[in-house]
Amino acid sequence: RRKALNLFFVDSDLSSSKMSVRVLNPNAEVLNKTAALHMTINAAKGLQDVLKSNLGPKGTIKMLVGGSGDIKLTKDGNTLLKEMQIQNPTAIMIARTAVAQDDISGDGTTSTVIFIGELMKQSERCIDEGMHPRVLVDGFEIAKRATLQFLDTFKTPVVMGDEPDKEILKMVARTTLRTKLYEGLADQLTDIVVNSVLCIRKPEEPIDLFMVEIMHMRHKFDVDTRLVEGLVLDHGSRHPDMKRRAENCHILTCNVSLEYEKSEINAGFFYSNAEQREAMVTAERRSVDERVKKIIELKNKVCAGNDNSFVIINQKGIDPPSLDLLAREGIIALRRAKRRNMERLVLACGGEAVNSVDDLTPDSLGWAGLVYEHVLGEEKYTFVEQVKNPHSCTILIKGPNDHTIAQIKDAVRDGLRSVKNTLEDECVVLGAGAFEVAARQHLINEVKKTVKGRAQLGVEAFANALLVVPKTLAENAGLDTQDVIISLTSEHDKGNVVGVSLVDGEPIDPQLAGIFDNYSVKRQLINSGPVIASQLLLVDEVIRAGRNMRKPT
Amino acid sequence: MTMSMQPYGIQSMLKEGYRHLSGLDEAVIKNIEACKELSTITRTSLGPNGMNKMVINHLDKLFVTNDAATIVNELEIQHPAAKILVLAAKAQQEEIGDGANLTISFAGELLQNAEELIRMGLHPSEIICGYNKAIIKVVEVLEQLVESGSETMDVRSKDEVVSRMRAAVASKQFGQEEIICSLVADACIQVCPKNPTNFNVDNVRVAKLLGGGLHNSCIVRGMVLKSDAVGSIKRMEKAKVAVFAGGVDTTATETKGTVLIHSAEQLENYAKTEEAKVEELIKAVAESGAKVIVSGGSVGEMALHFCERYKIMVLKISSKFELRRFCRAAGAVAHLKLSRPSPDDLGYVDSISVEEIGGVTVTIARNEQGGNSISTVVLRGSTDSILDDLERAVDDGVNTYKAMCRDSRIVPGAAATEIELAQRLKEYANAETGLDKYAISKYAESFEFVPKTLADNAGLNAMEIIASLYTGHGSGNTKLGIDLEEGACKDVSETKVWDLFATKLFALKYASDAACTVLRVDQIIMAKQAGGPRRDAAAAAGAGAEED
């Protein structure tokens, strides 16, 4: 029902434009010219204000309370924007850009929002001085292209051959994680995240992050989070007499229904005495029983003469009589596994997923050194561990309560993405605000001079807006923003590439401190920020039919 | 009509009914106040002389208890910050099963002190930093305070178990701890498996029977079922037991069956074949030696008739979980369908009998000899709420047993540990430079609330007690605690008040985690309260999960 029209060349007569809409819809509301521009600018600044305090390792946490009283704690801009139900049309547009940022690169949402906010803020100053938005927009476009070119010269290439440089991956992961979690936990997760991505990485194939299972348990403390080389399933066997722990297991991954299924047609049995009925009862189950027997035959084949165990993980169901048969043979059977887990199991344990029991061979079996069940209250977890050269693994998140777990989960997801990005980009960008300051210097000193006319001011506004990242970082760390920016720019003028240290506000070399950002994150940020800011600047009329735009007071 | 002035800031961007709180005054201080309120409620229930609370929950159920976990559970806390403390208490309850009150009260105390620091001008992040340093130090000191020689214990020795359990139970049922401890210890030791770390709290059952008094409570080696036997045979001695999970009745096909009858004779014959079939099955069971049949489902009239004829006692346990426990108690393997059980699958009970206790018909299955893995504490009391409270005390005791099976280390109780921690932390704070110093020394001060509350609740002069405790600890007596009966300070090795190391460690860690989380939050965005019966829906979902 909302409409933000991108009309620029409209009749400037206020009343007539208002009238024309009124004629069409008497309930519509119209915002014109300056009012519209200010509304969008205010909204952008407002959103920036909210997210500003989240940025960087020293950012604070926001608490979101849902409609049913559930608590969520987050520092992640993306989560925040998703949970906070925004209504203002401009804010929604910015939020969508941020969400797109997250979809593409997995990080940098907060930066996007504050960058757009800052672009709008800088533009406001120029517009108040009488500049036309269109000129600014032209300047933005030039600056954007120049910055992207600069980014390509500024980036630090990393060679990602068969043996990727683990240290650099760790640094990137650490930089991302530290902005989401407190330091101690972030450092611990860094290793987990890097190792898990390297575990699922196959040469010549794109990385599928879904092959890293993220499982959570409400148990102990957040620092008990660990990487399981193998798989953790969030269900257990449904038979009381099945083994809870087995070593040296053959694993059969299958998608075979081991339960009685009703026929599609409406069938009925007719019998005239109890014996006949007994016969029917056995006949009814025969086909299921035969399938179970085939599995048991295979088990006897591979487990004869040794004390190996046999585990079935089935995507379909296994009914109690079948479970009973399997349990009596000492087989562990899990039913109704997730489809994704079937893929992961094959990658982790080897073997192949079978869809029929007709041609079972020992080759289709996987192998795990240890399978055991862990019970937490009413939840059961099955661990499949000690597998041979796995290509799938599980990050087991632990925490005392749901909000801690959710927080870690979001962070882990971002961490995984950052490692994946690095592997794919094959380059990184110096962090801690170093890139932003360098890009600004480049724009002011080099690019601005090549631009003719008033578009220069747009380039300048863009350059100054870039500084918002180091500024906010410093502000959140309780440092003096002006001091920090001045010391940074003067170092850059001397030709030193430095970032800001959040401990004391002194310039540091991000390379030595190990602070690296993803290339694709920065690229996306610089690409999308100015586009949305330009669009918003060119809005001169907001028409809204129906309800009032403001809350009824 | 004009919209020239849009409201500025976030509030204008949110949906109607959303609230947004931010900044020190609006968010942090308000949060702390809510947490303080909560901890004042629970605090008076701390310790043996703690007061009871009467809580009436949304279902009009009355609770009279001083168990903090129950209180906060039934209070249905709405405030988000206070909820974080509740979650911490719940985590403690799930992990250890005791010490929930310490968690909430201590977190409340930490936050109260943090508020003072904030008013002094410290930034919350500096306080968090100090508190984090403090908790690391606390863990270190706590490990030094462990009573030497307590690392190993014989989990089957009743004296050792009782000495570790007493403090936990006494804080719930002061004055009756001796009786309860001995009951719980007996029950636990009996079901303790070969490897004590595998102890399962589920194996100690509690049966609450109205009437009598605590002195009439006893332990049953086996199970107490609150139901009658199905048939007329009510007692069986030294019997083999066959368990059928699917019910004792004629078999049925999954597909709908129809009996096809052409003549009157066939009708007669059908009933006969049916009868013959059931008789054959029951006879097979009887021949296998089983004298008791336990059914997980319905028991058919005809099957029952034949059971009576073959002198088989029939029990019905409809809960799947209860049936599994029964299997464990009797050492039986459940069969799905009525069939001839193999001798290995039969269980054994010494006696199984239907008795009437306090007007309730119960079936008691006993297994006096070893190899038994279930024991039941039969609690007697005059009212339901007393029974509920006794049950919670027993639960705490059992949980403590589980915790001590895993980690048997103990630390002095009766506030001795807290004072010692406070003292050491203060020394540590003095050695520290920088702003952390203030936070750490406040953290140390927070420990004082334990002796203070214990003394207050017992009607003693708190300041005097704390002062003399400090003097004692200052002169090197690390085990000086409060003796609540005499109202003086005494060495805990005399009064024998010991707390489990694990309980204390987890409670303190969860508390400071929760306090730091509350301090870290500087903005709250609250959605409009969703309408509808939330709690009931959640309860129904929970009940559904139980049914499996």
Automatic annotation (TrEMBL), chain A:
Heterooligomeric complex of about 850 to 900 kDa that forms two stacked rings, 12 to 16 nm in diameter. This is T-complex protein 1 subunit zeta. It holds the Pfam family Cpn60_TCP1. Keywords: ATP-binding, Chaperone, Cytoplasm, Nucleotide-binding. It comes from Brassica campestris. The keyword Transmembrane helix does not apply. GO terms for cellular component: cytoplasm. Gene3D superfamilies: GroEL, GroEL-like equatorial domain, TCP-1-like chaperonin intermediate domain. Belongs to the TCP-1 chaperonin family. The keyword Repeat does not apply. It is found in: Cytoplasm. GO terms for molecular function: ATP binding; ATP hydrolysis activity; ATP-dependent protein folding chaperone; unfolded protein binding. NCBIfam families: chap_CCT_zeta, thermosome_beta. Its main location: cytoplasm. Molecular chaperone; assists the folding of proteins upon ATP hydrolysis. Known to play a role, in vitro, in the folding of actin and tubulin. PANTHER family: CHAPERONIN.
UniProtKB/TrEMBL annotation, chain B:
Belongs to the TCP-1 chaperonin family. NCBIfam families: chap_CCT_theta (TIGR02346). The keyword ATP-binding applies. Keywords: ATP-binding, Chaperone, Cytoplasm, Nucleotide-binding. The keyword Chaperone applies. InterPro entries: Chap_CCT_theta, Chaperone_TCP-1, Chaperonin_TCP-1_CS, Cpn60/GroEL/TCP-1, GroEL-like_apical_dom_sf, GROEL-like_equatorial_sf, TCP-1-like_intermed_sf. This is CCT-theta. GO terms for cellular component: cytoplasm. GO terms for molecular function: ATP binding; ATP hydrolysis activity; ATP-dependent protein folding chaperone; unfolded protein binding.
